[in-house]
Please model this.
Amino acid sequence: LGMMTSPFAFAMLSGTALGWRGAILVAGAILVVIVAVLRTSMPSEKLVSATDPDVKPVLHRAIWGALAFVFIGVAIEWGFSVWAVDFFRTVLHSGTTAATAAVSVLYAGLLVGRASGSVLLSKFTSHAIVVCSLVVVLAGFTLYWIGASIWLSFFGIFVAGLGVANIFPLAYALAMTFAKTSAETNLASAYTWRVTSLALLVGPLALAWLADTVGLRAAYALVPGLAIAGIALSGKVHAAVQRTTTNAADDIDLWSSAQQPSAPQHSLSRR
Model:
C-alpha cells in the first residue's frame, strides 16, 4: 500500500505549490505515526531459537526450487518498479506526472493481486497459481511493452502487477512449508532473504546494463525471459515438491504406525 501511494503522492504534489518535496514531508509524517504505533504494539518477549546445534540443516530440492521462484518474482517486480518511470518518459514519451503514476498503477495491481491470493489458494494449488501468475506477467508485459498508447501501457503494467503479486509470498511459504526441522526453517528463511537481496541488486542493475548496451526497450526483454525461465522451471519444481510431499507422507505413516498400541495378547489356554 505504501509503495502504491508514495509515487502517486509525488505525481499529485509535483504540480502544486508544495512541489515534489511535499511528498517527502507527507511520508515523514506517516513514518512518525507508524513508529509511534509500533512502539506501543510490538511484543516485548524475546524470540528464542529452537535450532538444535547438533543437527546440520540441509535444504531440499523443493526449497531450492521455491527460492528460484523468489528470485524470479522479486527481479521482475523491481525491474518494473525501478525502470517504469524511465520507460514511460524515454520510450513512450509521456509526461513526468504520468510516468511517476505508472509505478502506483503497478503497485495497485500488486495490492489487488495479493488481496485475491487467499481466494485463489482456496481453489487452486500454489504451484498452479505461480505458473498462471507468470503467464499473466507475460500478457501484461506485452501490453506494457508494445506502447500503442499510454493508457494501454498503464493497463499492461497493472496486469503485470496482478501477475507478479503472489509469486514471492507463495514461493516464501513453500520454502517454509517444506522445511522439516526448525534448523531447516531458519536456514530456508535466511536464504530467502539472501536471494531476495540478490534479486533486488541484480535485477534492476542487469536491466540497466542492458539498457546502456541495447536501449531500454530491448533491455526489458529480461522480464519475459525471467517469466519464461520460471515456467520452464516449474515442472522440475513441481516434481521436487511431489517427492518431498510423498516422503513426508511416508514419514507420517511410519510415525502413526509406530504410535499405534500393539494388540493385547490373549492366552489360548483355559483354566
Remarks:
- The two ends are 80 Å apart (CA to CA).
- The chain is about 80% helix and 0% strand.
- The CA atoms of residues 4 and 107 lie 5 Å apart.
- Confidence is low (pLDDT under 50) at residues 42-52, 248-271.
